[in-house]
Amino acid sequence: MTTQPPAGTNRPVVTIKLASTSDELLQCYALRAAVFMGEQQCPYWEEFDGNDYTASHLMLYVDGEPAASMRVRWFAGFAKLERAIILKRYRSMGLFIPFVEWAKEFCRKKGYPKAYLHGQQRLWKIFEKDGFHRVNDKPFHFSDHEYGAFVCDLEVGEDCPTVHTDPMVLNRPEDQLDKAGILEQSMDRGASNPHADWTEKRA
Amino acid sequence: MSAIAQSIGGEPVTTKLAMKMEDSLQAFAVRAACFIGELEVPFSEEFDGHDFGATHVIAYVGDEPVGTVRVRWFQSFAMPERLAVMQRFRGHNIGQMLLERCRKLAESRGCNMLYAQALPADVKYWEKQGWRRLVPEEAGSAAKRIVAVVKAVDPSKPLPDVEAPEVVVLRREPQLDSTGMPRGTVSN
User: Fold this and answer.
1) 34-73 in B: which are within 8 Å (CB) of A?
2) Domain count of chain B?
């Protein structure tokens, strides 16, 4: 999604997308290293905890420059938003709430009825304003910070994918489920089944 | 040369060359922390397109990646750059350890000169480690943003004086679509 600023203003162009290339993933990791390791002194192995390759990564760009990122992990029944950061020079631009909104919509469109996150206390009011509520009143802590668990209900509608959805819709890039993807273009080539006899050989 | 820490807080200090994706990611993470996080260099300047034609050296304290340097290879010299040590691990000469690893690497490849570009404020750091200005300091040249420094790979074979100052152009980075060499080369 790209937000064009009103004509005649000097506001920047903001783009939010799913990281879908290795370059974009590297940008995501670099931003997290900058904020968590560089600014907050988080150890490398706590920041890069082994879950990066089971997750989806969201990127936000300001005038084309990587500015913010977020990681989403997928559990049964809920999506977990985590590792959300904005690079220092892009803070105070009001990017956080639109980014979380985009993430929630991304989860909703995939059919997840709940977004879940661990919020540091200083941010609780912001999450509450954005439709999240505490799961319980038990705080917990890791990597030097205290957290509360928050959840936000998402309205999963008819537009959300199920096993009965058009299979070619499920093949689309996940942040563009409403637009034809590259595999739909491949349908023009027809089905020549070039490996049809391979299975027979194995059998 | 000052002593190099062999261990910090009981953890051994080691260096290695990046050989795998995860190693490269560690090098990039340390640079991102120092240059983007601490010095607010934009992402697109820090990751300038040369990372996949270079060798990356990483320093560890225990298993924690704490420092890195990138070496680019030119026809007549090796160029260490993007030297970074995580803030809380500074003061242990880890930068020096990384540069020494570069020197040994250059030696093993039969290269006889190291060339680096330093900010004027950092030239003393390099000089303490046996580097010298490529071009002797001129009076009133303080406005120059970047200073070229060189060091012989084999300390017993000092570099001859390099005369023509115009052989190395002190610009930030060659354009990515050029041959990848600074205009002209440093000749011995």
Assistant:
1) 34, 36-38, 40, 42-44, 46-47, 63-65
2) 1
Q: State the smallest CA–CA distance between residue B187 and chain A in angstroms.
A: 36
Angle, helix A22-32 to helix B21-31, in steps of 10 degrees: 50
Which residue among A30, A41, A89 places its CB closest to the CB of B28?
Answer: A30
Instruction: Go through B151-178 and write b for each residue having 16 or more CB atoms within 10 A of its CB, e for each that does not.
Output: bbbeeeeebeebeeeebbeeeeeeeeee
Its pTM stands at 0.87
CB contacts, 8 Å: B42 with chain A: 65
Instruction: Give whole-number Cα distances, A151 to A114, A117, A132, A140, in Å.
Output: 7, 6, 5, 15
Q: Which helix (DSSP H) or strand (DSSP E) does residue A31 occupy?
A: helix A22-32
Number of domains in chain A: 1
Higher pLDDT, B4 or B26: B26
Identify the band that residue B93 occupies on the pLDDT scale cut at 50, 70 and 90. Answer: very high
On the question of pLDDT at B139 being above 70, the answer is no
Within a domain: B179: no
| Residue B81 belongs to domain with CATH number | 3.40.630.30
Does B122 contact chain A (CB < 8 Å)? no
| Residue reference for tokens 């300038």 | B48
- Distance of alpha carbon B58 from alpha carbon B86, whole angstroms: 12
- A201, part of any domain: no
Tell me whether residues A89 and B44 touch, CB distance under 8 A: no
